[in-house]
Amino acid sequence: MYARFARGECTGTTVTGRSAREEREKALSLDDAVDRNVNLDNLVREALFQGLMDLSSVTRHVLLQLDESERYRAVGRIAAIIARLRTPRSKRERPWIAVAPSLEIEDWAIEPDEEIKAK
C-alpha cells in the first residue's frame, strides 16, 4: 500500500503523487494585490492632496471609490499608507507605552464590560 501511495496510485492522488485538490488549486498571484496597493496609495495621496486631514475622512473618501467587497480589507492598508506619508496628530496626546523590547503602542483606556463590573 505504501509503495502505491508513494507512486501516486492510491485513490485521491494523481500520478504525480499530489492530491486532486492540490491539482485544482490555482497558483497564487501577487499581481492583483500589488495593483490594489498601488491603487490605494494613489487614492490616499489624492485625498491628502484635496486637503482631507484626518484618518476617518481620508478612509471614507477612499472606501467610497472601492468595491464593497474590498472595503474591509482596505481599512488597515489605508491607515498604514497615511502613517507612511504623514505624521499623525491628535487634539489630545496619548502616551506611548513599551509592550515589548522593540514595540510601543499608543495607550487607550478601555471601558470595562458591564458583566465584569457586576461581579
Molecular structure report:
It is a single chain. The chain has 119 residues and is mainly alpha-helical. Helices cover 51% and strands 8% of the residues. It contains six helices and two strands; from the N terminus they run αααααββα. The protein has helices at 2-6, 20-24, 31-49, 55-63, 68-85, 114-118, and strands at 96-100, 103-106. A two-stranded antiparallel sheet has the order 1-2. Strand 1 (96-100) and strand 2 form a beta hairpin. The relative contact order is 0.07. The mean pLDDT is 75.
From the structure above, extract its key features:
119 residues; mainly alpha; two-stranded antiparallel ribbon; 6 helices; 51% helix
Topology:
Blueprint: H1 2-6, H2 20-24, H3 31-49, H4 55-63, H5 68-85, E1 96-100, E2 103-106, H6 114-118
Antiparallel strand pairs: 1-2
Helix pairs in contact: 3-4, 3-5, 4-5
Mean pLDDT: 75
Strand percentage, roughly? 5-15%
Number of DSSP helices? 6
Bulk shape? extended
Protein structure class: mainly alpha
